[in-house]
Each structure stands twice: as C-alpha cells, then as structure tokens.
Amino acid sequence: MVNILLCCNEGMSTSFLVKKMQEVADTNGLKVKIWAVSEPKVDTESKEADIVLLGPQIAFMRDTIAERLGTRIPVQAINAEDFGRLNANKILKEALMLIRENREKQGE
C-alpha cells in the first residue's frame, strides 16, 4: 500500500484531485490511499504518508514543511498547470516515481 497525502490551505481545493487520483489508481489496480488535509494538520497526518504533495497555493512553504517532516518523506509541490487541469494521471505517476526514488535512497 502506498500512502499519498495532499496538502493545501484548507484541504478543500485538493479534494477534487484526491478523487480523480484515486480513480486513476483504482482503474490501474494500484493499492494506493490518497487523502487531503489543511497545512496545519500535515505534521500529524503525514505519519503514515509515503509522500506529501503540496497544492500550488502553498508551494512556497515546501522547504519549511520538508524541514518540519524531516528526511523520511519527500515533500513536493504539485505543478500549478497539472493541478488546475486535474491531471491526476500525471500527478500520480510523478508521486509514485518520487516514492520509489526515496525508498531506494533509504535502502528499502
């Protein structure tokens, strides 16, 4: 199971993207859990996440959030155009690639 956490200001603008990404994952037979939270909840909600994807509106917080979460989980801003177009397939693919790279780096 892969756990993908999306984070934005209020956790609401990412809810549409979560739904689309989960549909793509399900259609492709991927065992993925995807959920969204507001930025203040990212510290506690990220405990079981394999990656944290940030909505474009808080992309400027990437370094701060990454520092708070440590090196265990990659933190990546979602491309604004992909986010706006709800390009769930591309965003999911990139997230899975980053998770794989992180696991290799961690020696898993």
TrEMBL record:
<dbReference type="GO" id="GO:0009401">
    <property type="term" value="P:phosphoenolpyruvate-dependent sugar phosphotransferase system"/>
</dbReference>
<keyword id="KW-0813">Transport</keyword>
<dbReference type="InterPro" id="IPR013012">
    <property type="entry name" value="PTS_EIIB_3"/>
</dbReference>
<dbReference type="GO" id="GO:0016301">
    <property type="term" value="F:kinase activity"/>
</dbReference>
<keyword id="KW-0598">Phosphotransferase system</keyword>
<keyword id="KW-0808">Transferase</keyword>
<feature type="domain" description="PTS EIIB type-3">
    <location>
        <begin position="1"/>
        <end position="105"/>
    </location>
</feature>
<keyword id="KW-0418">Kinase</keyword>
<dbReference type="InterPro" id="IPR051819">
    <property type="entry name" value="PTS_sugar-specific_EIIB"/>
</dbReference>
<keyword id="KW-0597">Phosphoprotein</keyword>
<protein>
    <recommendedName>
        <fullName>PTS EIIB type-3 domain-containing protein</fullName>
    </recommendedName>
</protein>
<keyword id="KW-0762">Sugar transport</keyword>
<feature type="modified residue" description="Phosphocysteine; by EIIA">
    <location>
        <position position="8"/>
    </location>
</feature>
<dbReference type="GO" id="GO:0008982">
    <property type="term" value="F:protein-N(PI)-phosphohistidine-sugar phosphotransferase activity"/>
</dbReference>
<dbReference type="InterPro" id="IPR003501">
    <property type="entry name" value="PTS_EIIB_2/3"/>
</dbReference>
<dbReference type="Pfam" id="PF02302">
    <property type="entry name" value="PTS_IIB"/>
</dbReference>
<dbReference type="InterPro" id="IPR036095">
    <property type="entry name" value="PTS_EIIB-like_sf"/>
</dbReference>
